[in-house]
Please model this.
Amino acid sequence: MSTDDVYRRIYDNPKFQALVKRRGRFAWTLSIVMLAAYYGFVCLIAFDPKLLGQPVSSATVMSWGIPGGLGLIFLCFILTGIYVQRANGEFDRITREILAEADQ
Model:
């Protein structure tokens, strides 16, 4: 069996088509969440900078912009971790099943 035949069998497998759709939908969902958070933060800076410039408490000089920016960074790590967890679990399992079926 040639390499092209194996590729064709994988591509024609309904599990592969479902995997591509599911993985793409999941990646787009996480991307939209991140873009909405980032865009929201930038809009907040642009349209209400005083809000992010207010001190967190009267006893500190740190403004709300610092925790907001750090929250965005942490959100990136969290969303990446969610994607890696699902990719290493569900998506890799389905990929192994597809490859096993293509070898038969």
